[in-house]
Give the backbone structure.
Amino acid sequence: MLLRGIGSLIFMYEGRSIMAIFPERVTKLWKEWEIRVLVLISLFLQIVLILLGNRRKYILRNRIRVILWLAYLGADWIAAVCIGVLSSSLGDDCENDSQKTKKIIWAFWAPFLLLHLGGPDTITAYAMEDNELWVRHFLGLLVQFGGAFYIFLLAWRGMPLNILAIPIFVAGLIKYGERTWALRSASSSHFRDAMLPCPDPGPNYAKIMGEYTLQRNQGFNASFRSVIESSTRVNCWDPDTPILQVGYDLFDTFKRLFADLILTFQDREKSQSFFHNTTWQKAFAVIEVELGFMFDVLYTKACVSYSCGWGHLLRFVSLSFTVSTFVAFLLIDRHEHSTIDLIITFVLLVGAIVLEIYAIIVLLSSDWTMLWLSRHRMASCFCRSPILQPADRRWSNSMAQYNLLGLCLKEKPIKCLGPLQRLPGIDGMLEEYRLRQDKGILHRFSYFYEMLEEHSYKSHVTVSDDLKGLIFQQLKDKSNRARGQSNANAIYKQLCANRGDLVLKEKYNCYIKLGCSMEEDFDQSILLWHIATDLLYYLDDQDQNSSSGRSPDCKATSKLVSDYMLYLLVMRPFMLPDGIGKMRFQDSCVEAIQFLQDNNADIRGRTDACRKLLRVNTEVSPLEVKGDKSKSVLFDAARLAKSLQSMETDGDNWSNGKKWEMMCDVWVEMMCYAARQCGWKEHAQQLRRGGELLTHVWLLMAHFGISEHFKISQGHARSMVVVT
């Protein structure tokens, strides 16, 4: 913020030197309107932020994020520049009455800029990194308040308009202070420290051992005997408890996952008592509520507006001061000020009031308010606004899709490069330049083209009910394996490490035949199973999937998860374990494109491409034929697909439906493994991008106890010295 303030001054002086090249009339017009335009732009950016800030948790469109990003960066910069320009303009010596009058009303705008710098309640941080910069924002608070106060002193004439600026100053200081406090509370260090329990030394080991040693030295036969304590009763929820209450109670406990803190066995038992006795619909609804609360804590002023008793008082003070200033402004004598300045002042006052009222309506429509009403059995007396806060839109409920074969077949032209793509041989030429070692212009453009192509082939689909049900059931079955066992922690730890191998070993007994695909690096396993799934998906008959009698469409679900996992590998590699997945993907793409070009005459679509790939003789491993410099797994995946096909024809005698059922279970377990391996910061980052299915799976795993965060398994050991 200090750098932004200095930058605003540099911008101001450089801007004035640049204006010297324009005609005098243009320069004069700009000087007359510069401050007015900047103030109105600042107000407009606040409107954009308050409208879009909260909606980004369930909107996926990139243009919304870009608009919000530009508004977030521009809002602070514009307000800081405007304060700098105001201080410079008001500091110029001028003796005529019109200039003095203009000084007074322009100085009245300065505290409104503090209001704008405080930002709306719906967004305090655009990304997690902004929370870590709370010290910079605090310094900015001091600098910008000092600048606004300096403007106030320059324009002081003891007039009513000077006095009316004081309550706006108070409101602006409250808003800016709220934002700084919210950023501080959501920073990783303070968020973690706020949840740390009181230091616990445990039972007095030295005292107990001293007593034990004393008894032994006196000749007694001393030993230890465990004291059997009654087990701590876990308070479970009533079946009729509203989802919001269950979600908040679990959020209050499991938010420690977002600070990488540990949980206790009581936390596990309480969570399991609910999730083992509910449906997948309620389970995912509770998780949506939890992550919605988490989004509010990390990216909005929730810790001030909802969590603090004085937050409502500050809201009342801010609104009442602004409204009282507006009323007083209507009553004072305004004839000496220009019409345009009066209009802008009215716009600023009305805008500030409308923004405050809108913020209050959003607050009353939020899950936090509905939770309070639910606890006081008043929820039926209040109806939230479906436009401001849709009850069923806590995240996008979507999963991204990305397909290797679709990319290699060039099925989707890039919209902004449509005419260029129609040129003959353009794709091959750009690929050739991309692979060259020289760094010319075409080489750089080829990478830009590749980036656009990657985003062009990304799509989104709604997360199917079948997939949610399969995820829930698989995790529930795994949790039941360890629940109640004496070595439960060891079992849970092992379950965290399974990435498809458990399904192959124990459920389908085919690990010997397919297990080699699970012994590779995780990114390699994803690519192998993705390509193999595609090869079989387009060649198997559409009506063969129902032969197993299992209600979910395992073939379609396998395809969804397969494309989703490849999306994570290519577009979100930081959410997966470290590896060379991008290199393997690129090499596999290049080999697939080369193969398709060599057989271009016989290929008319994905089905033909899959059929051609499976016809290649793969008796000898590609590693033996090609070596290991290229990391392509295209024909290794073809070998895996043939092994999967052989499950129906060899001695296994599997039905087509059972094969897809197995593949679906493997994909779900691989996705669960990826969710467990992803760090909490990466999960938290996705909350502002519409949410990620992987984050919901990660939290669901923790609720079933399948997490390594449960480090306290029995509490304090209670032993006493027994003398015999």
